[in-house]
Give the backbone structure.
Amino acid sequence: MSGPDTALPDTALVVDLWRGDAGGGGLVRYRVPVDPGQTILDVLTWVQRHAEPGLAYRFACRVGMCGSCAVMVNGVPRWACRTRAIPVARQGRLEIRPLRHFPVIRDLVVDFEAFFARWRRALGRFAPASPPPDALAVIAPDASDRQLVDAAIECIGCGICLAACDSVGANPDYLGPAALNRAWAAVNDRRDDTMGHLRAAARDGGVHACHAQGSCRRFCPVGRDPAGAIVGLKRRLLVAALKGRL
């Protein structure tokens, strides 16, 4: 399929964009003028403004903070706003699709409901210990558990790790790296009732469904380590099991 004809310079990127909705769709080809500094988001904006006004895609901050612009670029999950088009193009071609493992709403816009449902199944929220302590906990910023929490909570929920994870594709019940990373943050909070998170991580679809391929770590745009968090949960589960707490 071909997109609308437009006046083009001699040098252009050949861009195949996925167009469609939950009922199906396919790739539509556009030719986009080359700009040495353009990002994937610039490419999408050009298509929407000059070739296909109906193109649906997400973005907000444009500076690599919100993560809402995540898409698949030549098979790799990337933030559109922080990815330069020329370096990732293959012989002047780009294929841009919605994130893998997410239901499509329209074009490049996907539904995150199932993503955050995984967080809820992993109990990825603070659960205060009961009964509450008489005094507020004093946690030093340089405490080892505080540093583990700090690293884990920097995840911004962009969905890149889930799209990169082949284990999710093989097992749709798998909680996935983002949800388990969130559970790891809670487990390391000394004010938290950690056993609830550990039990959630031990269920079917929990940490044992991870095949340790490391794609979540490799592609995380903010340098988080969900794979390390999953290993940490496995270790805590082993200790809890040996102590007869599970």
